[in-house]
């Protein structure tokens, strides 16, 4: 799949009428990193740090964590790498953290909930990230934040680690950008406060949509039950993109949704300008963006978003076909 799009690797993801979209890739292990050059991704918009923990029989020490993060930053060079702190629990189990059986693990003791209950885990990880990004810009975001108060607790812990770094005379990152994932619907009703406090927002639609529709993301029986091109989804995301634009806060979408060309087409029409997707999706999404005329697409989408239908997928597919996309 990568080879088919190789000739477009260095072309910008820009619409026919000149709207530029940043395409970044998702990664989690060092083996993913060569895809940066192969795909021409503009950086790593989501580095899932839990993968290192999932493949290790014991808790990785600070220096082992530092090594992975530093290697990722070195390979990325001038391109940004956005590290997401541990998202363990739910579907991502680690061998060294004993836990109770849960009735609803996706809504259970996972991600930031574990980190805030076991702050040493988070502190060591932030320490490793700060060491790794010495002299560079560090981007860190926190998963499954449900309320502003949780984000603030994370920021306090980060601040403590930055103070500690200075106390020990280590070279700090040139800048530390702290972001938040939007994966829990509740947080979208605190956007006005949140957007004043974060450096960037990243929308994790895999989780966000399972809670939006109350529909398990891993249950094959429900896989086709709801469509992410439902008017309700598009109206919800449109509201979030607008709030970010008004607050001047960069927003990325890093769920699988952004890697599907028709979905990505709808998202850019709603104002999204930064998508982080799996490496194999970069080529197809870039090709779609380069064949779109934003003005026409926007007009079409905004006139369909109020539809009472289950999904506007069919009309979008028709639009794409009619316009040679
Ligand atoms: C998401 O929920 O959309 C996301 C990007 O995180 P993950 O898939 O790792 O849960
Ligand atoms: Mg998630």
TrEMBL record:
Top-rank lineage group of the source organism: Bacteria
UniProt subcellular location: Cytoplasm
Family according to the record: Belongs to the PEP-utilizing enzyme family.
Protein name: phosphoenolpyruvate--protein phosphotransferase
Organism name: Kordiimonas pumila
């Amino acid at each position: 799949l990568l080879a088919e799009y190789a000739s477009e690797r260095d072309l910008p993801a820009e619409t026919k009428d000149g709207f530029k979209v940043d395409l970044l890739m998702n990664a989690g292990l060092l083996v993913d990193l060569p895809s940066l050059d192969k795909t021409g991704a503009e950086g790593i918009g989501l580095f899932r740090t839990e993968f290192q923990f999932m493949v290790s029989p014991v808790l990785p020490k600070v220096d082992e964590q530092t090594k992975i993060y530093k290697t990722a930053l070195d390979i990325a060079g001038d391109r940004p790498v956005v590290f997401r702190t541990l998202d363990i629990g739910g579907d991502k189990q680690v061998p060294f953290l004993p836990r109770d059986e849960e009735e609803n693990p996706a809504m259970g003791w996972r991600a930031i909930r574990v980190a805030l209950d076991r702050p040493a885990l988070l502190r060591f990880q932030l320490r490793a990230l700060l060491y790794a990004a010495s002299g560079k810009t560090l981007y860190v975001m926190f998963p499954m934040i449900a309320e502003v108060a949780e984000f603030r607790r994370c920021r306090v812990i980060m601040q403590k680690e930055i103070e500690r770094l200075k106390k020990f005379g280590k070279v700090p990152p040139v800048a530390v950008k702290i972001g938040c994932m939007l994966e829990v619907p509740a947080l979208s009703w605190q956007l006005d406060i949140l957007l004043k406090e974060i450096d960037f927002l990243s929308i994790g639609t895999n989780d966000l949509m399972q809670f939006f529709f109350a529909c398990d993301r891993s249950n094959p029986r429900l896989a086709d039950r709801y469509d992410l091109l439902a008017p309700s989804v598009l109206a919800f995301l449109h509201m979030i993109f607008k709030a970010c634009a008004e607050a001047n806060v960069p927003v990325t979408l890093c769920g699988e949704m952004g890697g599907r060309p028709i979905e990505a087409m709808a998202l850019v029409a709603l104002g999204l300008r930064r998508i982080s997707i799996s490496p194999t999706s970069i080529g197809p999404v870039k090709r779609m963006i380069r064949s779109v005329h934003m003005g026409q697409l926007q007009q079409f989408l905004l006139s369909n978003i109020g539809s009472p239908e289950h999904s506007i997928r069919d009309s979008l597919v028709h639009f794409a076909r009619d316009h040679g996309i």
